[in-house]
Amino acid sequence: MNALFNPMKLGKLSLNNRIIMAPLTRGRAGSNGVPGELMAQYYAQRASAGLIIAEATAVSEDGRGWLNSPGMFNDQQAAGWQQVAQAVHKAEGKIFVQLWHMGAAVHPDFLKGQAAVSASRVKLNGQLTTPKGRDRSFETPRPLTISEIKIQVQNFVQAARRAIDAGLDGVEIHAANGFLIDQFTRDSSNQRNDEYGGSIDNRLRFMREVVAAVCSEIGSERVGIRLSPTNSTWGISDSQYQHTFSEAVEQLNEFSLAYVHVLESKPNEESNMEYLTPRLREKYSGVLLANGGYSAASAHEALNSNLADAVTFGMPFIANPDLVARFKENAPLSEADSTRFYSTGAEGYVDYLPM
Question: Buried b / exposed e across 214-253, counting CB within 10 Å, b at 16+?
Answer without folding.
Answer: bbebbbbbbbbbbbbbbbbbbebebeebeebbbbbbebbe
